[in-house]
User: Fold this.
Amino acid sequence: MVDKICEVSDSGIKTIKLLSIAEPVYEIHFPFFPVLPAVLLLENVKQSIDLYIRKNEKEKTCFFKGVRKLKVYKALQPGDAIFTEVCLISKADDCYVFEANIYHDEMIAAKLKEVKVVVEKEKTAWEKELQSQVWE
Assistant:
């Protein structure tokens, strides 16, 4: 869901996604009036957060924990370019809290409040061994 990273800083990340009619979601989500489902806006933000966290914690995995509020102001359609801006609000141990804005044509298309993610801590030797046995 992220085509390009525009900027990464200590306080957040900015990304771009170009919406194409070729994306399979449009075949089933209102084929005669294709719009991007809100859940994919959330996925776009989550992937942007993944990229932000991997900047500092390369070997860790980010899991979505929840979002307090998602407000969509504009329907996004094929051909639109969406600009996602994610800002870090707080970090405590392995839990991060973000806020995100999604823009189209310099106008706000969606806002997300209190997007929470948990970062998986490094696996112990025992966990790595158990995982290797499961996947063999």
